[in-house]
Specification:
- Helices cover about 70% and strands about 0% of the residues.
- α1 packs antiparallel against α2 and α2 packs antiparallel against α4.
- The mean pLDDT is about 80.
- The longest helix is centred in the N-terminal third of the chain and has 23 residues.
- The chain is mainly α and about 100 residues long.
- The protein has one domain.
- It is flat and about 45 Å long.
- The N and C termini lie far apart (about 35 Å).
Length: about 100
């Protein structure tokens, strides 16, 4: 497999993991197993980000998404809880100066 074919394959896998994670995160009903499946897809998506784009840094949204499986277990699907508060916090955290240490 050539380098461009490998890149296309890895990008396709990354996209599939992201779509699978989004489908679970935005569903109106979730099972306990869904939190585990979401976590697996999200970890593989984040790992592929590091593999394909090594200079790209994680953003607050990526870090927040790491907590979605726990939120599923505690409060059910995302639609069951208001997200404006989370979006506000992400905005607050994004404005904090970290001197590029994070």
């Amino acid at each position: 497999m050539g380098q461009s074919e490998e890149l296309a394959y890895e990008l396709t896998k990354k996209t599939c993991h992201l779509i699978s994670a989004i489908n679970i995160a935005t569903s109106w009903t979730v099972l306990m197993d869904d939190s585990t499946v979401f976590a697996e897809h999200w970890k593989k998506f984040c790992f592929s980000n590091q593999y394909l784009f090594s200079k790209q840094q994680s953003r607050p949204n990526h870090h927040f998404s790491d907590d979605i499986p726990e939120l599923f277990k505690r409060w059910g699907p995302e639609q069951a809880s208001a997200t404006w508060g989370y979006e506000f916090l992400i905005g607050v955290f994004a404005k904090i100066s970290t001197n590029n240490k994070i």
